[in-house]
Amino acid sequence: MSKLTLILILLSIQTQNGFDLIIVRGDIFADWVVAQAYGWKIGAPVLSISKLDAETEQLLLTYIGMGARKVLIIGDPSVLPLEVDSFLSSHGLTVRRVMGVTRVETSIELAVYFWNDAEKVVLVNGWNETNYLEAVKISREVGGPVIFTRTDEISLSLREALSARLPMVKEVYIVGSDIESSVVEEIKAMGFNVIVTQGGTFKKVQKKRLIPLNYLLMVGCAFIGIAVGMVISRRTKKLSVSSLYFLLSDERSIIKSIIDAGGKIEQEKLVDITGFSRAKISRLVADMLERKLVERERKGKTYILRLSKQLKRFS
What we know:
Distance between the termini: 45 Å
Strand content: 15-25%
Low-confidence stretches: 1-16, 204-211, 221-243
Helix content: 40-55%
Number of domains: 2
């Protein structure tokens, strides 16, 4: 089989792989990253859930009522239970689940099966969440999938994907400075044009793509019909709704409280605003600090919370 024939077959498969909705586990940032990149490509919203409860069922039914018929789930059953598949299937939806043994494998499988016409790919260290949002941003700019890698070597599966399973790739964008030069040189030796970050920017990027119309319609309808606490940007400096998809509802409540307070808030006030206990607030904030979503400084006996610079850049 010639390479041209393989490309034509892959392109014919690509036209059949559109999804109306992508579901991920909200607190697994790595899965959200690859989902968000693909969702942007096809104009499908990314829904973050943690379990199948009454609230989640109602949310899914709303999407079904909006016309969703084909759903992609990212993550293995230990992350998102098979009850989610069964619930969707029982309502007549076609469900496809993509997963890998590791986050690297999951990102590769998503790229190979659903983004096989890509001419550019974005590589980022899968164990450094600091660069995740930047990788998604670059993915949108260049129109290619986000693929995770290790810093010191190219895995066999990644090498196979670049050399054979993604036959149209010509350029590889590397996000961050933590991927070793030996890896960069090896990718160059494979015949690819490699573009790396310098000070958070790229030497070369494509013009940003316009937001797909059906993406805007789906997100807009979801906001009106569901009222799940998502904050939609009105072309101001407020956080974009796309930056909230990977957050669970409790985390969105905190982000929304910060935004509504003008960009900063005393941590103590979140107890009254959200109704959460002090212990729960402390746990959520600690996790969001670790994921570089918020910043915190001490003021007297309390703390002041702000959106992180990284999250503001992404919005």
